[in-house]
Amino acid sequence: MPVTVRIPTQLRSLAGGDASVPVTGSTVGEVLKGLEAAHPGFQDRLFDDAGKLRRFVNIFVAEEDIRFLDGLDTPVADGATVSIVPAVAGG
Amino acid sequence: MPYVEGLRCRECGRSYPAEALHVCEWCFGPLEVVYDYEAIRANISRARIAAGPASMWRYADLLPARAEGAVSLGAGFTPLVRADRLAAELGLRELWIKNDTLNPTGSFKDRVVSVALTKAQELGFKVAACASTGNLANSVAAHAAHAGMESIVFIPADLEAGKVVTTAVFGGRLVAVEGHYDEVNRLCAELADEHPSWAFVNVNVRTYYAEGSKTLAFETAEQLGWAAPDHVVVPVASGSQLTKVDKGFHELWSVGLLDEEPHVRISGAQAAGCSPVATAFAAGRDVVKPVKPDTIAKSLAIGNPADGPYAIDAVRRSGGGFGSVTDEEIVEGIRLLARTEGIFAETAGGVTIASLVQLVDAGVVRPDEQVVALVTGNGLKTIEAVAPHCGPTATIAPTIEAFAQAVDLPSEL
Q1: What are the residue ranges spanned by the domains of chain B?
Q2: Less Cβ around it within 10 Å: N or C end of chain A?
């Protein structure tokens, strides 16, 4: 069963306008590689030149920020949802 | 408004039109409003500002929305109070409190919301929404009511009663989310994608919203006789306010309103139970690792602060520091300010005052400086914090004898 990646508005043009994309992979890193393979262009937008996630990109697995988990090595279960969310100011 | 040229990404510099955009489509960096400072410089003057309204809109030339027809309940131009008694307790020569508890809904959020909803109306939005730790909720609901807009406000379910009631009374939709603020915020970031016809003040109109905080710096300088102070202590949640206060002083200089170039040291104030920015600063990092908040200062309980890196940059560049204070110190900070200056602040104000104490002790805030502390929310919103410590001196029968017996008076009274 594939993983569902939720795509923010800013990146939907890369995925043909879709709000979510099914991808396979067992870690966040693999899922994002799978996303790049299916829809080239995500890599450049999500990662900086050094290959690190850009600092205003937040990734969540089942509503948990991966910085509280194992970052790109965070395991992703079959059928889970991975969300890409831009950082948002507070209130 | 006539001076806005567009938006620009703070990270990669890409340009965008002045629409409802908040992050760079390329790198997700936050967008900043770009002004034509030469044109502003040619038109703005102290006299022009003095002739304006007694509100934040007197600085409309430096805001990204039109003053005519602004959504305003009169936010801003709050008192700058000389705090000699608190200064004496702390060993400071000159201390001022920017008393932003006196805004229409009791916090500085009225400044940012007034800009956000004014711009939202210009852009044609009919619905105002936000994720909030409380103060923003109050302000969005009130300003939307005033403007005849629908409001949809999302808050963590465990918020103080004083912030829930004071939002719900304005009659919009108030949704309590089972989770902490960062979860509410993530939900709203995703909801904003689903509902592009809503103006989420801290999401798709955040670029304009954040600019409202500059007026804290503008007013402080004007109230000090058009001079920037030596040191400002600012509470830090997302880091936006601190970043904009720093920007505000520099803008005043760049448009010719100050006689001397400002060198304002900016220090940040966080609660120890949610201090990701202070922690990164202390470690010499500019990457802010998120935390799970656990503090009574719920209005500052943002564990994943979007503007944290910029706040660290402003503090480091200006030679300031960070305070990080416990819940006990926050309560003591609230009581110290109330006892010495007659100003009742909410928990965020307690964080600011307690951090000021800590920064004085650490030698970061120096005794010879002219210091301004930003007290940005009203204590009536968070009476839970001090209620266990504050009550009647005595409860007595209505007789002179009962009073004499119950209340131990010193001889001079």
Answers
A1: 80-106+211-386
A2: N
CB B141 within 8 A of CB B130: no
Which of 1.10.3720.10, 3.10.20.30, 2.40.30.10, 2.60.120.620 would CATH assign to domain A3-86? 3.10.20.30
Contact residues on chain B for A58, CB-CB shorter than 8 A:
186, 304
Do the chains contact at A56 and B202, CB–CB below 8 Å? no
- pLDDT higher than 60, residue B328: yes
The whole-angstrom separation of Cα B27 and Cα B37 is 26
Q: Do A91 and B133 touch (CB under 8 A)?
A: yes
From first to last of its 91 residues, what are the pLDDT tens digits of chain A? 799 999 998 899 999 999 999 999 999 999 999 999 999 999 999 999 999 999 889 999 988 999 899 999 999 999 999 999 988 766 5
Q: How many pairs of residues across A and B have Cβ atoms under 8 Å apart?
A: 97
Pairing of strands B231-235, B4-9: unpaired
CATH 3.30.420.40 fits B80-106+211-386, yes or no: no
Interface test with A, best of B193, B201, B299, B300 (most A CBs within 10 A): B193
Distances (CA, A) of B292 to B167, B183, B301: 25, 10, 9
Sheet of strand A57-61, all strands in order from the earlier edge strand to the far edge = A20-23, A3-6, A81-86, A57-61, A64-65
CA pair distance B314, B244, nearest whole angstrom: 10
Query: Do B131 and A19 count as a contact with CB atoms less than 8 A apart?
Result: no
The predicted-structure confidence for B162-212, as pLDDT tens digits, reads as follows: 899 999 999 999 999 999 888 998 899 889 989 999 999 989 999 999 999
Rounded Cα–Cα distance for residues A15 and A42 (Å): 9
Q: Is the Cβ of B135 closer than 8 Å to some Cβ of chain A? A: yes
Residues of B in contact with A8 (CB under 8 A): 189-190, 193
Chain A residues within 8 A of B240 when measuring between CB atoms: 89-90
Interface contact flag, A91 B132, Cβ < 8 Å: yes
Q: Considering the entire predicted model, what is its pTM?
A: 0.94
Show residues of chain A in contact with B292, CB under 8 Å.
Answer: 68
Chain A residue with minimum CA distance to B109: A91
As a whole number of angstroms, the distance between CA B120 and CA B205 comes to 7
The per-residue pLDDT for B411 is 86
pLDDT at B50 over 70: yes
Element (H, E) at B249: helix B240-254
- What pLDDT is recorded for position A89? 63
Cβ–Cβ below 8 Å for A56 and B30: yes
| Residues of chain A positioned with their CB less than 8 A from the CB of B130 | 91
